[in-house]
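Lab meeting prep.
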Amino acid sequence: MRIKVIVNPLAGRKTVQPELEKIIGHLLVEGIASDISVLRSIIHDETRTVACQLQKDEYDLVIACGGDGTINAVVNGLVESNSHIPLAILPAGTANDFAYSLKLPTDAEKFCAMVEQFDPHYIDLGTANGNYFVNVAAFGLFTSVAYNTPSDEKNSLGKLAYFFQGIRELPNHVLNSIPIEISCKERHLKGPISICIVANTASVGGMRNLMPRAKSDDGLLDVLVARLPDINTASMFFNTIFNNEGEKIDLKKNRIITYFQTKHLSCSTTADKPVELDLDGEYFGDLPVDISVKEAAIQLLVPAE
């Protein structure tokens, strides 16, 4: 097996690097891999370009090691390459939402067993204005938190860093809701909102069951829109979801949250300033945006049941 490894050496708390070294050594020594080529890069554009240039006759597997931004870059490159090379993900970021939802292994022994088993499954991707996302597209409060959380806090506190940043930013987002129009077959929403999240799996921003119906292979995207009219409501909502208690919210009775599934939606705004769009934790332009699901878009190695 010929393998291309693409790794972000600065991802997360750097704790995964020793595991990656063990994985590479084991795959070579045990003869699972005949050749392994490694790219170390912290630049997502470079990562995407290299992945886009990969060819099926050169490699049998790509291993991506990094956070959600690195994984996003590799996935975009692989889809653009049209090479259909299967992907294995070794999560190394702060939240690792996508990897958590699919129960992808982080230790060397289990990861090597998954590679040796080599049982790729097709998964869906989201697409937003021409860019693919693996796990989430968002704007509003969560986007601001993702961009503004200090790197040193993420490295020292992990996903708790997002919670503290969210608390710091709550007053501003409650006072400055975004005038939005969201249209799709299932819903038409118009008015001020604080949060909009479109997800491919249940885990978003370290909140492990925020999107309880979401699956990466069901041909649907899950959408959560929240209107937080005052600080008390916002604080209650924030504490509930960051304590991974999202399933306790009664969506049928809740007047501040709209949750639904769809294959396609469009979002626009009449806000005076640009509303930034976040794809897998990275900035990818401003609203308006058309978001849709690309079914069975990529092959991913997953562990045995």
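Slide two material, second protein:
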Amino acid sequence: MYPINIETKLVGNLEGEFYIPAFHRTYNWRDEVNRLLHDFQEIERDENYYLKPIVVRKNEEDNNELIDGQQRLMTLFILIKHIEKFLPMSQAKFSINYQKKSRNFLEPFDFNDTNRQTTITDEYFFQETTQTIINWFNEQEDETQTAIDLWLRLCRNIHVIRYEVN
């Protein structure tokens, strides 16, 4: 039997580099993004919210090789990057590195340019998610306050369950 390390982490405290191997399916969240944002918005101050797990294993470079949870993790990354436009100190403590061609997309990713032309499916859906997040923020009464509230929830209330397997 192989040991499994299970811990919960606040999203705002999630650290390290996450490596996404090529065997993962294409990033493709659509309706899930809006549902997630609405769920986050409804969390009360003293309430905890737990996302479905992410499963990782340490690879040779001591990075977190992602086995499961790419959709959630990438959506959180894009969300934090958008919040960062309003709150520069709210940077993600984790990074994502793709084995596929789309890994280069994340390095110069411009969250203001959702019209960039691409032939890579993952990149197309990264842009779709970014536009969904931008639209959702635009629908809010005060985008800056929404960013503050979401960042506080990511740092105080919203947890990810992290499984580390060997």
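Talking points for slide two:
The longest strand covers residues 49-58.
The chain has a mean pLDDT of 87.
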